[in-house]
Amino acid sequence: MPSPPTDTPRGPIVPIGGAEAKTGTRDILARVLALAGGSEARIAVIPTASELPDTGDRYAQLFTELGAGRVDVIEITTREHARVPGAVETVERATGIFMTGGNQLRLSTILGGTPLAKAIRRQNATGTVVAGTSAGAAVIPEHMIASGSTGPTPTTESVTLAPGLGLTNRLIIDQHFRQRDRLGRLLTAVSYNPFAIGVGIDEDTALVLTADRTFEIIGSGTVTVVDPSELSYSSMDSARRGQPVSLIGLRVHVLAAGCTYDKETRTASAPPRVPFLDEDEDPVPDES
Question: Dihedral through CA 110, CA 143, CA 133, CA 36, nearest 10?
Answer without folding.
Answer: -90
